[in-house]
Design goal:
With about 250 residues, the chain is α/β, with parallel strands linked by helices. It has one domain: Rossmann fold, CATH 3.40.50. The protein has six helices and eleven strands. β7 and β8 form a beta hairpin. The longest helix has 17 residues, at about 35-55. The chain starts with a strand and ends in a 5-residue tail after the last helix.
Length: about 250
């Protein structure tokens, strides 16, 4: 089977983000960038399916030329080859889904595995949009995956607990945090990754208009929290709640 896995280049979650002075975005110069953690889980699950059922794992990412670093990280884990759609501007969830759709139509994979969301914008939309555009079955928030023949059975996390769904391939799968523990890339894997193929495309070459449908107008850092204060008695507390906080 062929599995297409998407990975996104995001800011390291250990770094405290800083908003640009003009509010146009977040400062990324000199900041460590990593593979989106949910996408790393997606890569791991694809590799486990490949090891059990044989096949090929293709890694896809969208972004600047530097995004090739994150593709190479997935290749070092054991993926077979990569595809980079180069684009310097913003890409919203809809544009991402349409670009993935274009690559899907070229690659014809049996399964697409995506992280349920990216930790930078937390949209949780691309996987569902892709399933709609391709007219394929989908299972989101996967915490357990079992493949028997062409049927994928997925245990997914929902508000009330766990739900089990199944669909016949091809289809779309999005991964949750508890699905697996991603492996570390070995030194031989890192060396092999340098020689693995990474094809580059542009949105124009794929016939996709990536003009954002959603625009970020401005970002602002949250206001600093005011320190608490001690009051000597209940009467003072009630007075402050009524006159200062105006909640009574």
């Amino acid at each position: 089977m062929k599995i297409l896995v998407t990975v996104k280049r995001v800011m390291d979650y250990n770094v405290k983000p800083k908003v640009k002075p003009d509010g146009s975005g977040v400062v990324t110069d000199g900041v460590n960038m990593i593979v989106n953690p949910f996408d790393e889980i997606a890569v791991e699950e694809a590799l486990r399916l490949k090891e059990k059922h044989t096949g090929e794992v293709v890694v896809l990412s969208i972004g600047t030329k530097d995004t090739a670093t994150q593709i190479r990280a997935a290749l070092a884990m054991g993926a077979d080859r990569g595809i980079l759609v180069t684009h310097d501007g913003p890409v919203d969830s809809d544009a991402a889904a349409r670009l993935i759709k274009a690559v899907y139509e070229q690659e014809k994979p049996d399964l697409v595995i995506m992280g349920k969301q990216a930790i930078d914008d937390d949209s949780n939309q691309a996987g569902q949009l892709l399933a709609e555009y391709l007219g394929l079955a989908q299972a989101t928030f996967a915490s357990k995956v079992e493949l028997a023949g062409k049927t994928l059975t997925v245990t997914r996390e929902v508000d009330g607990g766990l739900e089990q769904v199944a669909f016949d391939l091809p289809g779309i799968l999005t991964t949750d945090l508890r699905l697996n523990q991603p492996r570390y890339a070995s030194l031989p894997g890192i060396m092999k990754a340098k020689k693995k193929e990474v094809k580059e495309f542009t949105p124009a070459a794929l016939g996709v208009d990536v003009t954002p449908k959603v625009k970020v107008l401005k970002l602002e850092e949250p206001k600093a929290r005011v320190a608490g204060a001690k009051v000597p008695d209940v009467a003072t507390l009630v007075s402050k709640l009524k006159n200062d906080a105006k909640v009574l």
